Every structure is written in C-alpha cells, then in structure tokens.
Amino acid sequence: MIDILTAGLAPDFVPYASAWALQKRIHASVVSGDRPDTLMLLEHEAVYTAGTRTEPHERPRTGTEVIDVDRGGKITWHGPGQLVGYPIFRLSEPIDVVAHVRRLERLLINALATADIEGYQVAGRSGVWVSHAGAEDKIAAIGVRVEKGVTMHGFAVNCSNTLDGFAEIIPCGITDAGVTTVSDVLGCTVHPRDLVDAVASCFKTEYAEAAA
C-alpha cells in the first residue's frame, strides 16, 4: 500500500527548495515507520538540479537557479509542464538500486502507454525513451538515492514543457540523444495533470501486488 501525495500542479508550481524540505520530512517518517511508502507528484518552478557527477563547465549561466542535489548523475532541468515524481519507498533487502530504477522505468512506460506513447528502456541508460521524428529521444528522466533503506529523488516526465531549458545543458550528460515531450510526440497538448491519474494508478497497482 502506498500513499499518493499531489503536492502542486499548474498553476500552483512548487519551488524546488519547498519540495525538497517536504521530501526530507516524508523520508524521515517512512524511515521511522510512521508513514507508508509515499509517491509525491508535482510541477516545479523552473530550476536546474545538479547531481553529484556534474562538472563545473556543465552548469548553465542563464540566470535560472541551479541547485546541487545529492542524487547520482549530472545536471537536468525541471519546470512547468513537466510531471515530477518522488517515490519515497522502503526497498527490500538486499537493496538493489538498479532494479529500483528499472522498475520505475517500467511503471512510467505503462503510464505513458495509456496516452498512446510507446516508451522503452535502453540498455546502459536510465529513463524512458521514444522513437520520434527519426531519432531516439528521452521522454522521462530518472535519478535516485537511497538513504537508510528508503529511496529519495525520482523521475521527471516531459509533458507540455518547453525544451528551451535543456538547450543550455547536456541533459544527464548524454551527448548523442535528444529530449522530447508527450505533447510533441502526440501532436497535441498533454499537461502533467492529464497524466497524474495514470501514473498514480500504475504505482498503486504495482505496489499493491508486491505487498500481496
């Protein structure tokens, strides 16, 4: 059983610092056993988050805030039109972070399928990918951390967001592939709010079966 917390969607964008503070509080409650596993879903104000492998020259100088975070990986952008999810889940022993990431990918692929998006996994790379306009593009990014057996950080699905923020960086350090959005692939506007129920349903079903 998991709890779904919709922390803020357009027009109520959530500043990254506020979401991070809430995520840490929920994480502490899950660690202590006072709260069930929780999936936070939200949209952020525009921000760059720099993972632990981000190099100084990879940081943009556009005026948009850059926040250093304690997840793995490099730099990425979050902002309006992007559905961000923070699964704060206790992992079973032995802890397998890669298996957790693969599971998140599969759940997002299932959620995107409800919108007629054919997403897939790419060996050696995290996230969800699509074939679009003759190219292989990332439509959802994933970056996680595990502390005291409970996960933090999570995923971002590009729904109706602009791609301008990605133009100032090398998203997740990948130089030979692009990024796209659900709206671009389908040719119509799909907002994060339109995918929230599908994502929540896929997670609830998966973790209900796991607990059975």
Automatic annotation (TrEMBL):
| Catalytic residues (positions) | 172
Indicate the principal place this protein occupies in or around the cell: cytoplasm
Question: What molecular functions are annotated in GO for this chain?
Answer: lipoyl(octanoyl) transferase activity
Q: Which residues does this entry assign to the site Lowers pKa of active site Cys?
A: 138
Record keywords, A-Z? Acyltransferase, Cytoplasm, Transferase
HAMAP family cross-referenced by the UniProt entry? LipB (MF_00013)
Q: Which family does it belong to?
A: Belongs to the LipB family.
- The name on file for this protein is Octanoyltransferase
Lineage of the species this protein comes from: Bacteria, Bacillati, Actinomycetota, Actinomycetes, Micrococcales
The record's gene field reads lipB
